[in-house]
Each structure stands twice: as C-alpha cells, then as structure tokens.
Amino acid sequence: MTVQAADAQAFNWKKFQGTTLSILANNNPIANTLMKHRHEFEQLTGMKLKVDTYQEQQMRQRLMTVMNAGSDEIDVFMSLPSREGLQFAKAGWYADMSSYVKNDAAPGYDFAGLSPGLVKDATVDGKLNGIPLNIEGPVLYYRKDVFAKCKVAVPKSLDQLPGVAKQLKTCEPGMTPFVSRGLKPALPFTFSVFLHNEGGEYMKDGKSQLCSAPGKAALSLYSSLLKDYGPPGVVNYSFYQISSLYKDGRAAMAFESSNELRNMMAGGARLKDTAITLLPPGPGGLHPTVLGWTAAISSHSKKKEAAWYFIQWATSPKTQAELAVDGIVSPRASVADSPGFRKWVDAQPVRKEWIDAVNQVGKLGESKIGYPIVANAESREYIGQAVTAMILGQKTVQQACSDADAKLDKLIAGN
Fold it and tell me: Which N-terminal stretch is annotated as signal sequence (predicted)?
C-alpha cells in the first residue's frame, strides 16, 4: 500500500468528491509539470480540476479582472509573493490558510518541512497567503563545447562578461553570445542579480537608487550585454524565448531561471554540452536572487476547504518528489535529499551542476526583486523602462536612471 493510499484511510480525501475546482495557472514549468499529475489528484479525491493556463502577464490580467469583480470564478491561483504579495494582501485577495494547516492537514503532510524562508515570504501580518510550490533563481547556462572550441574561460567576475561575449561573437558569429530577459516587466528578475552583485540596492532611506554608482554600473552592463551581444528583438524576450533560443543551439550563454532546466534540455541536444553556474560576483560580491511560486486560495472562492485539499496534495512530499525528477526544485529539503531525486540528478553531469547552483541560490539568495513596496509590480515596469530604453539606444544611463528615479520616488512616496 502506498503512503498516500494509507493516508487516504486515515484522512478523508474524498470529503469533497464531485466538486470541480477552478485553477488559474501560469504557463511555466511548475504548472505544466504539476498538471501532468492531475489525474492522481482527481483519482485520490474524486474532484475535478478546471485549469486555465496563461502566459504570466495575461494570467495576472485575468486574475485582476476576476478579483476586482469580487467573483468566485477562481478557487486557486498561482502567486509570486516577491512581486504581488503585499499588493494582493492589502487588497484582501488571499484566503488565510493558517487554520487549514493547523486543523485539516493529512497525515504525513509535514508543513514544517517546507522552506521556512519561503513560508515567511508568503506570510503577511500573520496570515498565511500561499504555500510554496518550488524554489528557483537565475543561473548561467553556457555551452562548454563552444567555450572550449573558442578557447574562452568562464567569466570569474562581472566585468569579464563583455570580454567573454566579444570573444564568442568573433569565434561563432552565427551564435548569440549572451541572452537574458529584455521584456520590461520580466527583466527585473535577472537584472536584480547584476544590481546586487555590483553592490547596489533599489531603495535607501525612502529614495530610489538607480542613479547610484552601482545602479548605473548594473544598468550599463546589463543593457550593453543585451544590446551588443543579445539576439535581435531581445526587448521582447522572457523565459519562453530564451529557453527556445538556447535549446535550439543558437545561444552560447543564457542567464535564466533554474526552473527552465527541463525546457532548455528538451529533446536532449543540450544535455551533453551544457554547464551551469551562478552569475559571477561583482564589486558587491555574490548575491543571487531566490524566489518560489505559491499556490493561493482566492478570498472570494466558495470552495476554500476543497481548494486547500488541492494545495496540500500539490505541495505534499509525494507530489513534490514527482515534480523534482522533472526539474522542479522542491521547497522541501527532504525531497532534495531523497534517493529517487539523487539518482535522477546523478544520471547527467549538467543536473549535478544545476542542483549545486540552485542549492547556492537557496543558501545565499534573497527575494529582492524590484522595490519593497505595495506597488512592487509597478516599480518593475519603471526598472524595465530604464533598461529597454538603453538597449534601444534611446537614452544614456544618466537619462534612463534619472527618469526612472523620479517616477520611482513618487511611487515610493505614495506607498
């Protein structure tokens, strides 16, 4: 008898049999991998899932429409606490799951086994607004075969990146030397590592710091790498385009989420020629970004208790172990240390480097993406505007940071 089957005898997984839950998901590896196992949930509980999947921006637009209308149309949605946590909490859109965790958890669920840091990120004013689904951060994927052919060393510091990209461009002119996010609302995820490695912060004493020396250095380096060594149309690039470009062998370096391993390696062409590391340190040291998506219950849902059953299934040790061998790093340390996961990791050298990099992200990383204010999402737009204006050659670094700081200072003052 399986553990989950044994649990089913002690815990009534069929309590809400016949219920249909509406799930709003981001079209990313987490949701896509989780939904491969949806039949297990439906069989276990007798419930049905209605899953609507959108690209990230469209998902949030759909959520905003439904939540602002006070509709009970959505029961569970994916959320990113580092981005919208304070905003959604202030709006009252999250249902507090604290009582469910204490009073209605299946045997063996082990809430305490989830990453304390990610649980803390999902908690506002003592209310548990989401349960972590994964742990991730940007890592540097690179073609070790191309580096060897071009006799180029992996950069050991940020200031070496442009020189390495230039050498790769000369050696392999048909290949994109470096790619990362250029889409305005998406790029702060990757840009933030450059800023913090340069020794910068977004905000100090209530004022925006993009025009500080480290801020200017980060803006200049990030934008010039994408302008001079990125692909055409990079200002439209998020993880979808980056993963495709790299998987198809058209990029030598890609700085993108650790979560994209599965997509990068799809088809197997990159399994043997890829290596993975962290972005090299800068004057400020090594400061990776770490975050985790959560599963949240809509405060307007009329099926909150049933929705909790879905969330505890999705974040249970058993389900998390199944996601892990598809490249989704679990927020549960027990899963990362399990024999099944270790066997999967040990089967390919690139997976060993990947999990080593993610472990470093987990140990060293912080969720400092954009400004620590309720209007975090809007702050990211202004960061994106500054970077893309420089990529397109529309503004100097002084013009870009000054314009952004002026808008951001007003935004900060209003929060």
Answer: none
Residue 374: inside a domain, yes or no? Answer: yes
**d(C-alpha 39, C-alpha 95), whole Å:** 26
Residue 334 lies in a domain: yes
d(CA 284, CA 196): 7
pLDDT in tens, 128-150: 999 999 999 999 999 999 999 99
Q: How far apart are CA 35 and CA 19, in angstroms?
A: 18
Task: Give the single-character DSSP code of 172.
Answer: -
Q: Which domain holds residue 408?
A: 138-290+364-414
Q: Which of 328, 59, 14 is nearest to 185 (CA)?
A: 59
% of the chain beyond a pLDDT of 90: 93
* Paired residues of 398 in beta bridges: none
Query: Which residues make beta-bridge pairs with 296?
Result: 77
Phi, psi (rounded to 5 degrees) for 64: -60, -45
Global model pTM greater than 0.85? yes
Does the CA dihedral 349-355-356-361 come out positive or negative?
positive
Q: How far is CA 230 from the centre of its chain?
A: 21
**Shared domain check, 405 and 380:** yes
pLDDT digits (tens, 9 = 90+) for 2-55: 444 444 457 999 999 999 999 999 999 999 999 999 999 999 999 999 999 999
Residues 391 and 250 in one domain: yes
284 is a domain residue = yes
Interval 283-298 mean pLDDT: 96
